Amino acid sequence: MASVSLDHALVLAAILFAIGFAGLLTRRNLIVVLACIEIMLNAGGLAFVAAGARWGQADGQVMFLFVLAMAAAEVAVGLAIAIRFRQSLKSLDVDDADEMKG
Amino acid sequence: MSALLSAGALVAVTAWYWQLLTVLLVLIAVLTIAAGLIWYERRLLSLVQDRYGPNRVGPLGLLQVLADTFKILFKEDWTPPFSDRRVFVVAPSLVLVTALLSFMVVPVAEGWVVIDLNVGLLFILAMSSLAVYSVVLAGWSSHSKYSLIGGLRAAAQMVSYEVFMGLSLIGVVTLAGSFNLSDIVAAQQRSIYYVFPQFIGFVVFLVAGFAETRRIPFDLVEAESELVAGYHTEYSGMKFGLFMVGEYVAITLVSALIVTLFFGGWLGPWLPGVVWFLIKTLLFITLFIIVRGTFPRLRYDQLMALGWKAMLPLSLLNLLITGAIVVAGAG
Amino acid sequence: MTILFTIAAVVAVLSTLMVVTRTNLVHALLYLVVSLFAVAVVFYTLGAPFVAALEVIVYAGAIMMLFLFAVMLLNVGADSPLRVPRLAWVGPGILVAVLLAEVVYGLTRQTQPLAGVEVGPQAVSEALYGPYVLGVELASMLLLAALIGARHVAARARDEEEAAESMERARGLSETAGEAPGQGAVDDPGRLTEEGDA
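^ inputs. structure came back:
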């Protein structure tokens, strides 16, 4: 390979996204599920930055900053829910929350 | 930009041995200063408390450092069987590595810098945010309740104070117009030491520096009267030694940063730049030690209240005023 | 730069694989930190140093620390078995592999070169506070909502727990002393570090 090109970076993003997605489908621990969502968000951000680097513009990086802010918000609420989940159900297995009262 | 990049490449090609020399010089200098600080702190602290301190080994007790090092090296290097071994071993090295890496972007004198990084200040913030892991992982991997509480406190304290540390620096960045530490010093040469226009930023950075290095008003992480020794309760031998050396390197780093950002770095009349840099840095290290001798430890809720109710509004106010002045000056 | 990119990409993929397969929660999170680091290096090679620094400061420094804080606060480990049966990986694995193959096939049909210029902090800030200023406002509102929401959810948990505890204590006082004490928060280090993650 001669030099880094857009498709190399996008393929990397796709691989990371796929790994995160597989983990999300398979793992049952709430915190691991949240971490898998982080992996996927980060892969999406990587795709944005790569697309911005294709044209040498700042827009891709700006979109990554928005993804970052969203990830921070998602983690804050997600972990608060995890703490609540653990206290009411005494477990972190997402399959334990299969009832609509609780 | 491409001209800049090629110029950088040229320097890298022609003077790789000079770069290597700089790396070695900075490494040796920092580690020597950190070792000397062990002696300096004990002597100065005993002066504050009206006693002698270590004065038996060598002239003025200077060889005490060597004696301590040998003692610590020959102690049994014990890893508790109930600990998470791999994390337990990695944690102490992180604190030293991150602090030493931060020194890469600190200019000691004009042109004396390992990497003239454009985002130098952000790099330092990134490294300091990684230093938290050392303490938290040490606390978690020990599997002891005192360590765990110390680690939890460290996580909350250091993540909180990092916010103010970053915010207090934005004022300096706004005035200098660059994240590059050499540029910031050069900008101070053109105008005035930034401690004057950025006094609030300086105060906030100083307080955040104490919190990030876990020094005495903020050392709840290892509060010995309640947590035995906090996060390093289970550590012994050279692993504990790494935590100690890491703390002194971190103190040196924060002092060097204060000097670079607010007190003009290597600038000063008559003497060469390196000497000025060292003198100023040593002054702030002395401040760190005297504070340890004079202040009591805060309570945990006081620590958080100070951070979020005093430091955050102050740094935001500082940012607002600085921005207004810069905009007024530009328009 | 190509070598750096390749190394960082390989490290990112391997450590991300470790994240989704580890059974120790803290180890998984640490591998995620390594993965984020590698992605930061990838950003640097793509000519985006500002975002690379922010990736380490915000993602690795703050978000992952929040994860670790929650894990330590919950004292996870003994309960909630993290082991996943090997067969459970088959179905999702096949689906994701097919999806990935399709995406990679679509992406690699033509090569697009990168612009090869470095876009520094100044350009990003000018874009951020120029055409995207509305997005910044929205992001700040989102963060404020998340802050309040997280505080509300977590604080309600604490209040209810305290109420249950005091009720159990009252019941324990009224009944005979032979009763076993309620299983309230016995081993909860979080009590000592209140409002830590608020």
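Chain B has a mean pLDDT of 82. Chains B and A do not touch (no CB pair under 8 Å).
thumbs up if we can close this ticket
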